[in-house]
Structure prediction request, 610 residues.
Amino acid sequence: MCGICLVAGLKSDGQDGTIDRMVAALAHRGPDAHGVLRLPGCQLGHARLSIIDLATGAQPMTDVSGRYHITFNGEIYNYQQLRTELQNCGHRFATHSDTEVIMAAYVEWGPDCLNRFRGMFGFAIWDAKTQELFLGRDLFGEKPLYYAATPDGRFLVASEIKSIVAAGLLAPKLDPAAIDAYLALGYVPPDRTIYANIQTLPPAHFLKWGRDGTRVQRYWQPRFEPQSITMDDAAERLRELLQQAVRRQMVADVPVGAFLSGGHDSSTIVALMQQETSRPVKTFSVGFGKYTNELPYARAVAQQYQTEHHDIDLGTPAVGELLERMAEVYDEPFMDSSNIPTFLVSQYARQHVKVVLSGDGADELFGGYSWYLPLAASEKVRASRLKWLLFRSVSKLLGHRIAALELYSRGMGLAARWPDTRERFISTKTTFPVSERQIFWGGRNRSSDDFTHTNYYRPPDGTTGMNAVFHFDWMSFLPGDILVKVDRAAMANGLETRAPFLDRDLAEFAATLPAALKVNGTQSKVLFKHALNRYWPPSVKSRTKLGFGSPYQAWLHFSAVKTLRQRVFTGESRLRDLLPGLDPATLEGRPYEMWNLLTLGLWLERHEPN
Prediction:
């Protein structure tokens, strides 16, 4: 896990300090070492967090031929197998690192090498002979990668936007369409950035840059093609693939720990990790006193598997200070309040380890979010005329007629308003609807939902119903919210995070599962629970899902946060200048919406170009 940067298209030796400024802006991502490689036409930079091949894995790196040069962020978990295969093809290696394997794989297979990698990555390879650049990014965007063309013809690449800005070669320009998308979704969609003149390489894409211009191309897309399989066979396959993923991701030359919230996902990862080692796994948890405290569940898991457990109850953290710190950590506006506990647990874990595994991705792959239940129920409502029988069956399964009636009623309401399940989902997940966003803009910008209808988000033909919903979360929510949250919060503390549930083999298996094995209208994560509950202590097995969140509703009433609200929502603030039609009074009693705009306002104070 590192920070990478590059400037290409140089007309001279480029001794103006550009690449040095870019590397310095990424120091938090790689505190162990900094490296710069100056070549004719291109300069590469790297800030290193040493995980694999501590002795010879320094970057930027040049291959044995001297033609190819790379700067790489991430991990290729199957690099040892690929190294053997490439040696059989005649390639020679000077190091024991996965970085060198990437270069050899690109030389041997071209862009198709990306389909052979099992890992998380964002990298840039410079071909000194052809003066061409190749960028590659992992399937779900675990590792970030940004680029920009400057007015004088240079091409910038970096792990974070702040590094591109630090180059000093362009003035960032806010993109109103991206801000509108943020107001709707709570995050900037993963196929764009908050700036009109800085781009992101979308997940599962590669980029080529050279004399013929710039070309961006997708190399992978999930195919939701349900296959017939029994529950028991699917459960066995899920356990096999997840164990394989955990085994792969524990490869490192430094100790590997785990985030442990005490939920089903992280508890499963810890259980499987402990099966792979004779040493106690180091596990980490945080709580917030009376507001949010899952520490007893985490301790039960730690006790069952005899981990080396570390937890801390932070009680009432300095939320005002942390909110302003998050505006600095995140280069784009970001409203997911769980970024604060993620930042704090990362800070705590970094005192003991450099690498942790997490349970991220399980909810997207196996249908764990609360919003899936009413959507699945709405599908059943439309599919059946016997609505009363559905209500009775739901009541019986849940054992609670009021809860069942509420779920059934919500399903009926959703089905009546939006015939298409995907449109039903997107409409209900929108923070501010188009009509309200139009008021905010005060006639300066016309709101639209184009960010949910581009080819990037549109599922392949034949993907309908709940699978279309899953596709959107795989393509948008997971890379745009969850993985951004974790990467920036962890890397701000020099900590590498890995997500076994996002292993490609496991993800492709999940895409073949019938939707009913994920969520059936009355239960979420159906197969997941059937296959993996054997790993959970009784207290964890019986608990309801909370999600790794924060008590932001209470935090909004802390005195320090009230001061921030006053500053952001009143007077001639940058938020009010951007959204002249915003009336703060309309936010009272709407904490989720208020948090969205508060985080946007704080971000604007720090980042909006003058």
Summary: The chain has 24 helices and 17 strands.
